[in-house]
């Protein structure tokens, strides 16, 4: 199964992917944000390319983002189990590239009210060490400001 999740930032794509994974635990959830962070952390060639644009406050070009996605979609867990893709494609060029890379079984659009999105976005915090994500309103850590998983101080996203 190859699914693409669409929706606005704070629209619940990651949460929805988590719910799907409860029933299909082997299917990888592929988030462009996670891929960026992983490539930056590992100082890959693509990560270093992306960092140059990000440091300048510019959007990372489609070809760099597409290459990161293409690399991730070529890995064995994806080949064996399919994927839940979140945050890609965002442009026509990316959509055309995805169409060349693989077939998609379904596109899922999540629609959420503006008020809910604003509350979700303003409440987001994450762990800079292990990338665990929380929301101070809907999914708070057990101890305020501290990651349940590794004990690091949480940062607003």
From TrEMBL:
Stored HAMAP family: Adenylate_kinase_Adk
PANTHER family, alphabetized: NUCLEOTIDE KINASE
Annotated signal sequence range: none
The entry's keywords: Kinase, Nucleotide-binding, Transferase
Protein name in the entry: Uncharacterized protein
InterPro entries per record: Adenyl_kin_sub, Adenylat/UMP-CMP_kin, Adenylat_kinase_CS, P-loop_NTPase
UniProt lineage: unclassified sequences, metagenomes, ecological metagenomes
SUPFAM superfamilies tied to this protein: P-loop containing nucleoside triphosphate hydrolases
Any Pfam family matching the protein: ADK
GO molecular function, one term: AMP kinase activity
